């Protein structure tokens, strides 16, 4: 593992600008954060440049208030206007920075499954299904195939209220994948699961990321999540909340 502590203050900003110039016009596939800086007033939360390859996951770690969820929101397109943000986000060579959230082709997973309670499991998934799949039979079949992929055969008509935490997490993953996103953003999606179940769902999520060759960003405070993701880690610690820069760790594969 290589650990790097960037320079602080003006030197840190200079390094970010230099790297930003190098990747400002990315080509090819993957998710690129180019010269991204987020601040609240005069309080700089983070500065980051990263290229996330297809099938790889960038893990952003740090305590509450460190700015990791603000980075998630910036990439997704719904950062609170109270924050000052600069930099650009590219996905497969396409500049997402000024696009509305619904046009970014990003799949989102949160701590809660956020299923519609008035719909069955299957109806929740049909609601998210990509528009390219037409016809009632074809759409139903696509949902059934996805339910089987996440080990939930036979649950199409189930009430979400009857699902266990692990089952609800699987439905949330299935719903996200059915929308055919080009990348995934994960905001501590395993944090409310018990330890044994967390490992199972975590393995399922990361296996689908690798199989589908999607770049992903994981926001977490749990080192076990970072280990399971198995690649690039940005550790936003106490110093970052004072504007001192992030520690980067690259985990050997």
From TrEMBL:
Protein name, entry field: ATP-binding cassette domain-containing protein
Record's keyword annotation contains Chaperone: no
A single GO molecular function term of this UniProt record: ATP hydrolysis activity
Residues annotated as signal peptide: none
Chain residue ranges for the region called Disordered: 228-253
Record lineage: Bacteria, Pseudomonadati, Pseudomonadota, Alphaproteobacteria, Hyphomicrobiales
Ranges of biased composition (kind: Basic and acidic residues): 239-253
Keywords of this entry: ATP-binding, Nucleotide-binding, Transport
Residues in ABC transporter domain copies: 18-253
Family named by the database record: Belongs to the ABC transporter superfamily.
